[in-house]
Amino acid sequence: FLIFSCSALSVCVRAIDRTELLRYGEHTGDRSLEPGAGTDQRSQQLALDKPLHFYHGKFHSVFVSTRNGAEPTAEYQNNMPASFGMIAAAMGNLDTSNGVGKVYFRQDASPTTLRQVADHINRAFPEDDEVEPIHALVVTWENVEPHESSRRGDVLDGKRNTFQLVVASTETASYAVLLYPRDGLQFHSTLVGGTSKPIVAGFNQGHMMPWSSWSQDSFYNLISTNEVSVRDLSEQTNSGKRGVWVYEIGTSPYFSAIAPGEVTDLPPEAPQEGHAVEEAEEVETVSEFPVYKVYPQEVPQLSGFPEEPEETQPAVYQEPGRTEKIAAHPDPVEPYPAPNQAPPLSHPHYQPENPQVVVVDDGDINVDVFSYNYETCATTRHKCSSFADCRDYTGGYCCHCRPGFYGNGKDCVAEGKPQRMNGKVSGKVFVGDSPAPLEFSNNDLHSYVVANDGRAYIAISTIPPSLGPSLLPLSSLGGVIGWAFALEQPGYENGFSIVGGEFTRQAEVTFLPGDEKLTIKQEFRGIDEHDHLVVNTELQGRLPEVPQGSTVQIEPYTEVYQYGNNVITTSSLRDYTVTLDNGVTQTKSFHWKQTIVYQSCPHDEIPKVDYQAQQLSVDQVFVMYDATNQLIRYAMSNKIGSIHSGEPEQNPCFTGRHGCDTNAACRPGQGNQFTCECATGFTGDGRTCYDIDECREMPQICGPHAICNNQPGTFRCECVDSFQFGSDGQTCISTCVDRPIDHCQAGTHNCDIIQRARCIYTGGSSFICSCLPGFEGDGRICQDIDECQPGRCHQDAVCSNTPGSFSCQCRPGFHGDGFHCSSGSEREKTQCERHRDGALVGSSAFGPRGPRPLPGQFIPTCDALGNYEPTQCHSSTGHCWCVDRNGQEIPGTRAGPGTQPMCIEPSVVLPPVGPTTRPDVSPLPPGSHLLFAQSGKIEHIPLDTTGLTLKKSEAKAVLHIPDKVVIAVAYDCVEKMVYWTEITGPSISKASLQGGDPIPVIQSDLESPEGIAVDHLGRTMFWTDSMRDVIEVASLDGSQRRVLFNTDLVNPRAIITDSVNGCVYLYWADWNRDAPKIETSYMDGTNRRVLVKDDLGLPNGLTYDPQTSQLCWADAGTHKVECITPSTGNRRKVLDGIQYPFDITFYGRNLYYTDWRRDAVIVVDSQVGKETDEFRPQKQSRLYGITAAYTQCPYAQNYCSVNNGGCTHLCLATPAGRSCLCPDNAVDVRCVQRESQS
């Protein structure tokens, strides 16, 4: 026998994505293995329609396994070869028992599948004759996870793998094609017998008997026995396509060896491939139930329905991509498109049953939908969809969708593009005989429809177990989206083509035999600015109880839609089967009656098809309730056509089995011929479609004072700050014509970046730009001055130019600071000696052996090596005290005349761990740098003079803190000190980047300090503690400590100050899984408010962009980098598809973030929203906090920057002034507290 086995793989950004896997899932005819885990693994034998060639043998059946048949993994996972034949796609100890992971398999001889597999094989063996397979075995492991993986709240839980094995056979040979997609490969090892073992991938011959003699066991390993080689599976190739591996695994009648593909080189990534990768995050191939990933106590988000920001943006409009390549658009491209927009759609394939025409009473339903009036196109140009043309008629105007789009003219969507629906569900429902109703409000509803195969997916979140199972029979609760975008048969139209996106639906459900009644009311509000159809749903009434643990099966059904004057009605009797957890089945039924009311255009003079009735055929109905995540899912296939029986259409466009891209429309031809045409906004051959970047191809498309943001299939124009769309909905006009603007504070100036220039406000709306010292230019463009002129450094020193500065270093054999160098025979004077000699030179008394101090003059004493003696005494007063290595008095050590303090000799001080003590660590050189934490050290990466390029070869550790876990880092540009938090102590410490020892700052009353920020103007620091759930402030030396917030915090982490606007604002993130949020306040803790709360997952890192005055964050839950303008609330997506970011910082136009999964610092161009570089430290482990260390402090000032704002203790700035606050538990009677003083 032959066994197929699965396991785990690593995430790789530049690999194939899931949309490039062969189609899989139960809707494709796949079978699935029963769930299994650990020693309870599952396998199933499959008889093959065509034999499979493997090594010398020919097989007529195979076993498909969760892990590797019925034998324990520990016996063979790392002890290959095994005694049986096996193809290990990625073998490990896996778990599919949680209801999420699935193993699908099928045999497939369809032309589409065979052609896809043949393309991979022929690309891998370009010198061989083309292979034409006659049979394929497709096995897909979807979202399998490692067995007994440990979990912790914010760490890497929920890792799951998705990958695919295809075995294609001809009459004389078989080939294995292994596909490892990006974002589907998330772990590299599993626990086997309590030990972590790397994944195994390869081919095992096992014992076989060709020619009646036993052959020797043989194992062909695809990878080395380490996790790095596992990671390479998704990044490399032998087929010319990254993440795709092809092998010839058996031939007949003679076999020599496993033959790998021959194309290991990869062509340069073309722009279209980049679009495909970006689009993969937006549109996924959806299995029978789209994968739904949740964390404990997390509000559900449907991964099958790609997420987009849902906040409203009034100054936004959208337009699909239009280029000269798209013949479906005969109209010229308008310079500034209109604000309305359209979304996507989908289509399916089914067999109609015997229909019945039922006449029902419409009833009286009062609705509020849009209506046409007697205006003309000239006065109502914005009431049509931006994808429609307006036409005047005798009685008024009507809207008609343009070629390539469909709908009612008010709402139009691109043909072939997927469609999403979002909304809320509320209700009051009695279950069974319960006397009390279950009430719920604003539960999320998400739906996704694949337009060109008619498959619809619906999910409703936060449904309690007491209600969820009883809602399972009501698949039509979300099935209206299936009718709206059903696959159209020749001569028939789906719901959206007729009614558009604004209508009301009321359904009455009567359950038999108990006569329970439920009313469903839905209001469809059209398409929002995010291309989503919006719906609100309300449920009222009683349901018969379906016991918890039961499953419900709904057989295929048909439904006749009768069309009247702006009213559509249906009525049907439906059966469903309930299977109790004890295996008993019950068949039940309900009567379904619904009315849809809409508004058509009464003035249209174009003849329309007169639909008296159409039949909706629904099959492949799946319903499931996930009690763990309180989520109910429905999935179904929908087709609209004639009510009369007849020969079903065989053209693939009408069956949905065409193989066109998800973003393409299927165009039927003669017989079974068809073509695939990419939807508007996409380009390609129809089999593969790529998003058109309209913003790049037409840079001026949005007009003045607007920003263009590319979206899949479309783009979005947003007015910049202080502008909004005018009455035409296209032109951005100023919102503050009569009000002066401080462009320096608003970030709308055109000065160079803050590392090279400063903006100086001069009143009104005027400002000037001035280059910082060390730079020259007009302030808008500043160039670094090369200070290394002759005579700048000592003649025996080397001068090195740095951005805005320079450094001098004595040549080998000389000693000094670079400005003064002495030869090796002449030791340079130490600090103590210079201090002593300077004091003596300043004296006027001279003795026979040189100068003598005047009475009252302190002269330090130095030891034989020139270092300060640990005990210093004043010869005149008799007082003595202890000093540190820099000669500074140690507080509390001064003793009176006649006694000496016990001072510690420098020789007994423990070796420092700062930058001057270890040979592999050195002080930070001049220039700008990135500082980041990695376990027990802080490292730096220098930036070049432009501030945009990493000098990777010069990166090294600047500070070692053994046995500590450093979490957050912050930089004080005034004293050039780095501050950090660590959680093993826990403590907060600092160290000079010019060299020296770490200095403890706070070591008490801390539990888990995870974020830290420095106010370089007010000389204070702020930090978060996620265990104590507080935010505190203190002076930079740790004194004057005060709690700012101790309420409404669950998991506070990142915290930053806005240094450019005068350090008056504080921002922090709370990654509370139940309600993540980003908040802000003034520095004194007043004016606290929630800035962002929607569409957040795990907002780990925060940073502030001084150029655009935007707050940006990296989210490990939504896998996005986003920014928001705090003053306006305008929010934009910078990058999506990232993996597990921890912290983020800004420098110039670049964002830099640390990633736990990639163990790297990632560089992102914030203006174009793309990754441009990455840095991987030599030691591969998690990276934590990151910050930028500037050459000079950015220019800014506030009320606390001079004389501590006149405060006796803490000075905390506000926009109008400052607050003088006392530390907690203050006992100093001299502390004066004044709040919000200006």
From TrEMBL:
GO molecular function, one term: laminin binding
Intrachain disulfide bonds: 873-880
UniProt GO BP: canonical Wnt signaling pathway; cell-matrix adhesion; epithelial cell differentiation
A Pfam cross-reference name: Ldl_recept_b
GO cellular component terms listed in the entry, alphabetical order: basement membrane; plasma membrane
LDL-receptor class B repeat coordinates: 976-1018, 1019-1061, 1064-1108
Domain EGF-like span(s) in chain numbering: 649-690, 691-733, 740-783, 784-822
Function: Sulfated glycoprotein widely distributed in basement membranes and tightly associated with laminin. Also binds to collagen IV and perlecan. It probably has a role in cell-extracellular matrix interactions.
Oligomeric and partner information: Interacts with FBLN1. Interacts with LGALS3BP. Interacts with PLXDC1. Interacts with SVEP1.
Name of the protein this chain belongs to: Nidogen-1
Originating species: Scleropages formosus
Lineage: Eukaryota, Metazoa, Chordata, Craniata, Vertebrata
